Amino acid sequence: MKKYIHLFLLLTLATGLGACKKEYDDKTLGPLEDSLADIPITVPNQEFFERYPVVTASVAQAPSPFTITLQIPVEKGKIKEITKITTGATGLAVMQSVDTLAYNYSRATKRTVPIAGNGSNQITFTSNLQTYTTYRNRVGAANAGQPGVVAPTTAFNDQNPNQLPFYFLLTLEDGRQLISTAVRVRVVK
């Protein structure tokens, strides 16, 4: 009789554990689900995708230009401007704080200089490694409270390439603001 009671209790426990199911709401991700932005920002000119979109800049080509095209879905609106650009290891923290550490900060006007859109769902940012080096010299390399900005050199190997992370604050025509994931610029020979 004691065996049957233990068997009954084990069967009841197994049934009870199997019946438990977690309820997921709009703010909770289920297992194996991704969190997708309401308005995703993509990089159609990416050359690689390795957790982040990657474009390349060649140190062999003077003045080493690179272009990053940012795009949102057509039905989600039009991009008015790139309001702020940051880079470095702490780029996202800088995005929401100090303007003087922004990539598009002007010492002459003492403010960030937005890059105007063209009334579409795409906008293009173009720069070069010399401008990046000037920016790095202006903000310093990994000082306290400043972004950890890496030098755009060829001191790398194929297994550990030198990549410069950029973050963008986009303002749409209706006033909404979006922050991109990191877009990496890989320095190649």
What does this structure look like?
By secondary structure, the chain is an alpha+beta fold. Helix content is 18%, strand content 30%. The chain is built from 3 helices and 11 strands. The strands form 3 sheets. Strands 1, 2, 4, 7, 9, 10 and 11 form a 7-stranded mixed β-sheet that branches. The protein is elongated, with a radius of gyration of 24 Å.
* Helicity range: 10-25%
Could you report the average pLDDT, rounded to the nearest whole number? 81
**Assembly state (oligomeric):** single chain
Give the percentage of residues in beta strands.
Answer: 25-35%
Low-confidence stretches: 142-147
The largest β sheet comes out as: 7 strands, mixed
Quick tags:
single chain, 189 residues, alpha+beta, seven-stranded mixed beta sheet, two-stranded antiparallel ribbon, 3 helices
Tell me the layout of helices and strands.
Elements: H1 2-19, E1 48-49, E2 53-58, E3 65-71, E4 79-87, H2 91-95, E5 105-106, E6 111-112, E7 115-116, E8 122-128, H3 129-139, E9 163-172, E10 177-179, E11 183-188
